[in-house]
Each structure stands twice: as structure tokens, then as C-alpha cells.
Amino acid sequence: MLSDRRFAVANDGGPRPDAAYNHEDFLNKTDSGRFHMLNKSYSKTGTVCRVTFKLPAEVEAETAVLAGDFNGWSTDSHPMKKLKDGSFSVILSLTPGKAYRFRYLLDGDRWENDWEADAYLPNSYGEDDSVVEV
Predict the structure, then answer these.
(1) How many CB atoms lie within 10 A of CB 85?
(2) Which of 87, 89, 119, 123 could serve as 131's disulfide partner, Cβ 3.0–4.6 Å?
(3) In order of start, what are the domains of the chain with their CATH numbers?
């Protein structure tokens, strides 16, 4: 059974009833290997982990920004690149041995969790943050 935490939420914290994507279709694509939301690649020395954060085109957004512990929750320091297929991607180098909270800000007004995050933790706004463990 899927947790409701994996679905988009509106700015007021409630579920978005008109979600722009079909989560079951997304899971099917993920299972087939088409989408991988978080890819981790460690340096040979193990001192750095390059994490690729990716959002599928099904989020139907014009812009996406990655915000989290690693950038002080800045909504402009890590804009994601929109790819030809409509998906978004950004790569960050993070310190291994830590867990980082994060979320995606879509079109400047819609927060989205990662559907394949390593974990989810409640935040002070009554919602959940995605967590990546590196």
C-alpha cells in the first residue's frame, strides 16, 4: 500500500485533488526502469556522493527548483534543467554519511515530494519532507 506522502500536496498542505500525473502510471514506468528519481554515484575515495534528482514530465510544470538542508532551503540556488521530454534534472555533490531533507518547488508555488525518496519526515508546516540518505 502506498503512503499518501508520495503524492503532491497543495500549498495549504492538503492533497492536490487535480494532480497532474497518474501515480500508478509513474510507478509502472519506474518499475520498468524508465524513471529513476534519485541516482547516487560515490567517488572512488567515498568522500563525495553525486546525487541526480529527477522529476518526470508528468508533474506538468514550467519550472522546478530543488530546495533542502543542503542549500538552506533556498528557492533559487538549485534550479532544475527542463529536458526535451519535459522532465527536470539537477545534480548535486553531497557529503556521504548524512541524511538531507528536500522538496521540489514547481512553478514557484507548488511543493512536491520525491516519489522515490529514501524516507519522509514531518516538517514544521504540517507536511512531510523527502529525505535522501547518502
Answers:
(1) 7
(2) 119
(3) 4-133 (2.60.40.10)
For residue 38 the three cell numbers come to 534519485
pLDDT of residue 21: 38
Give the position of cell 560515490.
Answer: 42
Provide the pLDDT for residue 115: 86
Nearest to 64 by CA among 83, 84, 45, 88: 88
Contact criterion met (CB below 8 Å) for 61 and 88 = yes
Q: Which residues pair with 90 in a beta bridge?
A: 53
Straight-line distance from the first to the last Cα atom of the chain, in angstroms, rounded to the nearest whole number: 26
Per-residue confidence at 73, pLDDT binned at 50, 70, 90? very high
Question: How far apart (Å, rounded) are the C-alpha atoms in residues 77 and 86?
Answer: 21
Alpha carbons 131 and 121: distance in angstroms, whole number: 7
Res. 8: pLDDT tops 70: no
- Using the predicted structure, report yes or no on whether residue 91 has a pLDDT greater than 80: yes
> Which of helix, strand or coil describes residue 1?
coil
Closest CA to 113 of 125, 44, 76: 125
